[in-house]
């Protein structure tokens, strides 16, 4: 894998958020922190979970200690490591346990995004997978209290995943790829 400039990784991620995630309304809660500059985008170029783990812990600590009005959420972008989706899932499991071990279960939630994301029991080419596909492997660290507040003000939040799946299936893989390539 070639070295990726951290600034370029952040720029690509921000464009994906703005045009795809927010633009298609896939996450109705992303627009406000994005617009207000409350999303942190640390970049990790470590290759293995052994190298990523301490970076994740520092990222977790930074988020927990920060003022939510300054840093509401964090996307840890991996530019080199866990490019294989199965390795990524193993790493995700390790990092979810790290949140528990840190005593932060119920405080921080970990969401997962990967370029090859594929839901269990769904074919790889199903457009539904794009709800969790991203330009780079990344881990989204979300403050539970911010998420709860957002969910409380959103009518029928349980319908969001189904709505997103339908939206992406209606678009189809070709149109999704066109949207992403034009970013």
Describe the main β-sheet briefly: 5 strands, mixed
What's the multimeric state? single chain
Distance between the termini: 22 Å
Structural class designation: alpha/beta
Radius of gyration: 16 Å
Shape: globular
Count, helices: 6
Elements, N to C (H/E): HHEEHEHEEHH
Amount of helix:
40-55%
Low-confidence stretches are none
Overall residue-averaged pLDDT value: 94
Give the amount of beta strand, in percent.
Answer: 5-15%
SS elements, strand count? 5
How many domains is the backbone divided into?
1
Summarize this structure as a short list of keywords or feature phrases:
183 residues, alpha/beta, 6 helices, 12% strand
Describe this entry's structure for a reader.
Strands 1, 2, 3, 4 and 5 form a five-stranded mixed sheet that branches. The protein is globular and about 40 Å long. With 183 residues, the protein is an alpha/beta fold. The protein has one domain (6-181). α3 (49-65) crosses α4 (85-101). The chain is built from six helices and five strands.
Structure, briefly:
This protein has about 180 residues and is α/β, with parallel strands linked by helices. About 50% of the residues lie in helices and about 10% in strands.
What topology does this entry show?
Elements (H helix, E strand, L loop, with lengths): L5 H17 L8 H5 L3 E2 L2 E2 L4 H17 L7 E6 L6 H17 L6 E6 L24 E6 H9 L7 H22 L2
Parallel strand pairs: 1-3, 2-3
Antiparallel strand pairs: 3-5, 4-5
Helix pairs in contact: 3-4
């Amino acid at each position: 894998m070639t070295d990726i400039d951290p600034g370029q990784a952040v720029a690509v991620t921000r464009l994906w958020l703005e045009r795809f995630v927010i633009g298609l309304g896939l996450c109705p809660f992303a627009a406000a922190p994005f617009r207000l500059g409350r999303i942190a985008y640390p970049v990790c170029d470590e290759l293995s979970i052994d190298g990523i783990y301490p970076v994740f812990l520092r990222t977790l600590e930074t988020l927990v200690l920060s003022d939510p009005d300054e840093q509401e959420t964090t996307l840890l972008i991996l530019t080199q490591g866990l490019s294989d989706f199965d390795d990524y899932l193993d790493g995700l499991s390790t990092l979810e346990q790290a949140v528990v071990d840190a005593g932060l279960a119920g405080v921080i939630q970990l969401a997962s995004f990967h370029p090859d994301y594929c839901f269990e029991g769904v074919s790889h080419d199903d457009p539904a997978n794009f709800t969790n596909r991203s330009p780079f492997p990344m881990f989204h660290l979300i403050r539970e209290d911010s998420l709860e507040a957002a969910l409380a003000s959103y009518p029928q939040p349980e319908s969001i995943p189904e709505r997103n799946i339908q939206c992406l299936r209606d678009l189809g893989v070709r149109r999704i790829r066109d949207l992403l390539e034009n970013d």
